[in-house]
Amino acid sequence: MESALKDLSTPTGGVEDVYGEDCATEDQCITPWTIAVSSGYNLLRDPRYNKGLAFTERERDAHYLRGLLPPVISSQELQEKKLMQSIRQYDVPLHKYVAMMELEERNERLFYKLLIDNVEELLPIVYTPTVGEACQKYGSLFKRPQGLYISLNEKGRILEVLKNWPEKSIQVIVVTDGERILGLGDLGCQGMGIPVGKLALYTALGGVRPSACLPITIDVGTNNEKLLNDEFYIGLRQRRATGQEYYDFLHEFMSAVKQNYGEKILVQFEDFANHNAFELLAKYRTSHLVFNDDIQGTASVVLAGLIASLKLLGGALCDHTFLFLGAGEAGTGIAELIALEISNKTNIPVEETRKKIWLVDSKGLIVSGRKETLQAFKKPWAHEHEPVNNLLDAVKAVKPTVLIGTSGTGRTFTKEVVEAMACMNKRPLIMALSNPTSQAECTAEEAYTWSEGRAVFASGSPFPSFEYDGKLNIPGQANNCYIFPGFGFGLVMSGTIRVHDDMLLAASEALAAQVTEEHYAKGMIYPPFADIRKISAHIAASVAAKAYELGVATRLPRPADLVKYAESCMYTPNYRSYR
């Protein structure tokens, strides 16, 4: 039987479709396999195949469901309507999050149907900002495993642990060690909410099959005293492993992943502390297919907004001066990608293009006089300048046209800072990127009000539209969700084996190209999320095209129309008919 089913396999999504689930058209029947054919009560408890009241009369007879369901037969659309009404009755976002997670655990396709069809409403629920609170309370919310927990207790046995996961054809792993969850700090093992949320978006926004996604939390302890003293904490009760012990453990993990899943498995690092994030990306980017969303994904989505904003600001990217508040992995990652893009467009060495970009950290403007005490990843941004101790003075000294916040500290773009930007620029670009909403450097209302309606504004978490002087301003959301689902899907569908910076630039340009004149008229520098599946297909196609150009794509021959190929590979959550 298995060999016969293998003959039906397709390259859809880059993984062999052993059970014929994806090579069948939506009007063809499939078999709900687990270890054997799933039927009866077990079928209703299998989230991958459960359809609830949508099972037809024939399916109820064929799969021994008579009496296990009420007699009514409901369409998926009616189920969706009912559930959205139920979710909207909750006033507390965390309650909506719990309701969505419970739905995913009992009916996978309906979960993704809701998320895809109501993405603008539900994205802040299943991911930032609500997921931050969910991580803080994950110990109390935990009911059943949604991914793999690999702790120091499994040292020397990580390959064995990976084999415990029931799905074998994994395409994408999102992994965290929980040390720097959003702007909330060290949440240890409870950071699992981040990989779970990211991979839900890989499916809903990027089209990667849910069965090909694996969330993983690496538990090396936590330095969060509150968690260590919490009787409901679900992780190791010890302080974090560091140094050689930490890196040896991560190396065992990376080696086991490659051994178990092969060369083309995408490993996305998520919410690691700055020092580890840079180290891990540098160490494994030449030997594994790795991607750090905090460094590379954030950089790509911000660069896309900058490219799009040129229609409103005027000039080319090289004509602008950039000032960052925050010099961690997000800030330096964005800065480096901006410098690379300017270098590519002007043929000026990247060492020179970096001089258009200035960074402020907790000790003030990063200048050459501080070089001896700077961390390695900050040193390229130490330019010749006298010391400047605070952001307002840095704005006055550098005279930036673009102000970008990645500090993780709320309300640091004060009225004086925004007014200074507006004083020296006709249309200042202000990007308050820190998450969650409470940590944003300023609100959209503050940016528009203090700049007298002239600012072009974008943030990391969503803000409502704001009317100033009779004009409705729609703030942009520089959300990584624009980039990483399509970027990762482009790597998977082309069988890419390494990530190159040029792929990030290609993704940025593809996203910027989706902003229309209608959007610009509303002050938008990002397209609406309602179009995210189409946007992801274009990003995936651009990333795949660059991979083929660079010779690192292994899925041959190259499809003639990569956009159409991407759309055809995308997972769709519509119910299937069962034999």
Description:
- There is one protein chain.
- The chain has four domains: 40-117, Hemocyanin, N-terminal domain, CATH 1.20.1370; 129-292, Rossmann fold (3-Layer(aba) Sandwich), CATH 3.40.50; 297-478, NAD(P)-binding Rossmann-like Domain (Rossmann fold), CATH 3.40.50.720; 482-522 and 532-558, no CATH class.
- The strands form four sheets. A seven-stranded mixed sheet has the order 9-8-7-10-11-12-15, with helices on both faces. It has a five-stranded parallel sheet with strand order 2-4-3-5-6, with helices on both faces.
- It is built from 25 helices and 16 strands.
- Helix 5 crosses helix 6 and helix 11 crosses helix 21.
- The protein has 579 residues and is of the alpha/beta class.
- It is globular.
- The active site is at residues 127, 198.
- A divalent metal cation binds at residues 270-271, 294.
